[in-house]
Design goal:
The protein is an alpha/beta fold. About 30% of the residues lie in helices and about 20% in strands. Mean pLDDT is about 90; it is low at about 255-275 and about 440-455. The structure holds adenosine-5'-triphosphate and magnesium ion.
Length: about 625
């Protein structure tokens, strides 16, 4: 039996024959009906190896590829009441060492594929001595072992203990911090997303993201498990392969293998082995801006039939929802997507490791506004706080509209503290109340006003300082006023527009504040600029000055257009679009802007590397 966690209850209610997970490369699929029995067996194995009946609160690190086995392992750790610490196989050994040490991992689990990697790390000098457990592979539902009736698993009222997940932040601004997300917080995040994005059992999600971040885990696995959606893993990301997968069901239709137009949205297709070769249309896709821009570039190079079928796949009756987040979505990418798909803009949302998803545009295409990350999600309370005076900006005061402030958040979806870092926890939470807020409406009546203090630090009443800066602006007349009842319950009031990070992106130049994101947007609007990153460069005269690095589009002929566009000309082109003090004083053209797996630019590094001489 398993503890009665909400995620297990949800899984046990889904049609046991419906697909939970698909491996894109092999076409193997795994049923919801087998999931809990597999979770049970891995949980038992872990407890046996540790010689304990549960692993309450222990950190269990694991290195498993994006697969059914990852899902089972992750859930098995929750089922043992332990804290799952997913590791990225892309991390070099020192990074893995840091996480094993910092999390004080009791165990390190590895799949066959990553056992050598695990052994390599365990051979190095560690402050901890994790027990190494090699995991076996599971059989998919096409196999003989799996074709019978699924094994029944009972759920017991034993509480969740300290079950949860620990994710490390991207390390964009500093050393990665360990963010502890108790199972209750993970579940609150899933419920908020279920309500906002309406995941359902007819959703079929294509998963192309790494699995050591919120985006790939909570948004793209944990929440789908609640709704009974199918998740197909395709990793590492490859733009051509993604397009071919999008196109596949429609290519088949054109060849006469599928009835009608191949549109199965809203209809459940049973996954009998006979139908395995017929891929289902993707209804749900979530990715980061760099993935979308790579998709857009690759689409141009596809054979015309695939191009056409891929376009069909993007129509709203097939692809219900395409979401972008983790970094700001550049306007040209959004525009090109709309042009390509002929359909709705990407839905942009804002989130972070510490809070899951916090702000989101709406399902109704009218509730998506370029440059905006939308409204506080169900259950999330948000406010803006003046950067200098710490005064809470009043959403009802017109004088405060358009004034930048730090986004602060609270509610049941927010984490409660950094692992082994009480100083950071104390620094990032604020304890004042009764100031005006917006957001916070939840369908099932959950309130966020409880004052329960958790063992790990912050009280539920505290506001988390995101370090991100935003302004609020009224939505255009149609946005946020949709007739859809679920939309109306949370999408209302002003929309949020993220300007960037307080530390790295808000440049203070000669007494003026400049938003790096705003300048990046304008640079990207120049037809020759492919990528842009704007940073604060130390300046004796101004305190800080605006620095920019850009990557140029290759011209059709091949040679880079460096010669045709000098930094001076780019600056000239920005006049009239930006106030003089916002125009980059230093502008460098580079071949490549370094980004991490989630498409984020490490600006500290960039400043060090590109603008080194400016420090002298
Ligand atoms: P670290 O905290 O270690 O410096 P990090 O903040 O980049 O790293 P994450 O938690 O992975 O680590 O990323 C959260 C950040 O991503 C947010 O604070 C915000 O700056 C950025 N972000 C996420 N979504 C968006 C968005 N839609 N627009 C702009 N920025 C976004
Ligand atoms: Mg952060």
């Amino acid at each position: 039996s398993l503890p009665r966690l909400p995620v297990f209850e949800a899984i046990s209610r889904h049609d046991p024959d419906s697909t939970a997970v698909v491996h894109s490369a092999s076409g193997r699929h795994f049923r919801y009906g087998d999931l809990l029995a597999d979770v049970c067996s891995v949980r038992n194995r872990l407890c046996e190896r540790a010689g304990r009946s549960d692993l309450d609160g222990e950190r269990i690190a694991f290195l498993v590829e994006n697969s059914y086995d990852y899902v089972v392992t992750w859930l098995a750790i929750l089922a043992s009441k332990a804290i799952a610490v997913p590791l990225s196989p892309a991390f070099p050994a020192p990074e893995l060492q840091y996480i094993l040490n910092h999390s004080q991992a009791l165990m390190l689990l590895s799949s066959d594929k990553f056992t050598p990697k695990a052994e390599e790390v365990l051979r190095t000098e560690l402050e901890v001595d994790p027990l190494h457990v090699r995991l076996e592979k599971f059989q998919g539902s096409g196999s003989a072992a799996r074709s019978g009736a699924p094994e029944k698993v009972t759920l017991e009222e034993t509480g969740s203990g300290s079950a949860g997940m620990m994710l490390y932040t991207s390390g964009t601004t500093n050393r990665p911090k360990g963010v502890l997300l108790p199972e209750s917080v993970m579940t609150a995040q899933a419920r908020s997303l279920l309500q906002a994005w309406e995941y359902s059992s007819s959703d079929y999600l294509l998963h192309v993201l790494p699995l050591h971040h919120i985006h790939g885990t909570i948004n793209a696995i944990y929440t789908p498990l609640f709704s009974g959606s199918a998740v197909e893993f395709m990793f590492p990301f490859n733009a051509d392969a993604v397009w071919k997968r999008f196109a596949a069901p429609f290519l088949a239709a054109e060849n006469g293998h599928l009835n009608g137009n191949g549109n199965t949205n809203g209809h459940h297709i049973p996954d009998s082995p006979a139908k395995l070769s017929r891929p289902r249309p993707i209804t749900f896709f979530t990715a980061v801006p760099t993935i979308y821009s790579r998709l857009l570039a690759s689409h141009k190079t596809l054979p015309p039939v695939v191009q056409h079928a891929a376009r069909t796949a993007l129509s709203p009756s097939n692809l219900r929802l395409a979401i972008s987040g983790s970094a700001a979505l550049p306007t040209p990418v959004q525009r090109a997507w709309v042009e390509l798909s002929g359909a709705a803009p990407l839905l942009e949302r804002y989130g972070m490791t510490e809070v899951g998803m916090a702000l989101s545009c709406g399902l109704d295409p009218a509730d998506r506004v370029d440059g905006s990350v939308g409204w506080p999600l169900p259950g999330v309370q948000a406010r803006l706080v003046d950067l200098d005076t710490q005064r809470v900006l009043d959403p009802n005061d017109p004088a405060d509209r358009d004034r930048p402030g730090e986004i602060q958040l609270r509610g049941p979806t927010i984490f409660q503290g950094y692992w082994r870092n009480p100083e950071a926890t104390a620094r990032e939470f604020v304890y004042d109340d009764d100031a005006p807020v917006n957001g916070g409406s939840v369908k099932n009546g959950t309130t966020t006003n409880g004052t329960s203090t958790t063992s790990n630090g912050a009280s539920r009443n505290a506001w988390f300082r995101t370090g991100d800066v935003a302004v609020r602006r009224a939505p255009p007349p149609s946005a946020g006023l949709s007739d859809r009842p679920t939309q109306r319950s949370w999408a209302r009031g002003d929309m949020y527009f993220v300007l960037g990070r307080r530390s790295a992106d808000i440049i203070k130049s000669g007494g003026e504040k400049v938003s790096a994101l705003e300048v990046e947007r304008e640079l990207l609007a120049l037809p020759i600029v492919a990528e842009a990153a704007v940073v604060a460069v130390p300046s004796g005269r101004w305190g800080q000055k605006v620095g920019a690095v850009v990557v140029l589009h290759p011209p059709p002929g091949g040679k880079r257009e460096k010669a045709r566009w000098s930094p001076l000309e780019m600056r000239r082109a920005l006049k009239g679009r930006l106030a003089a003090y916002k125009i980059p004083q230093v502008l460098r053209v580079v071949e490549r802007i370094p980004r991490n797996a989630m498409g984020k630019v490490n600006k500290k590094e960039l400043v060090r590397e590109v603008f080194l001489e400016e420090f002298s």
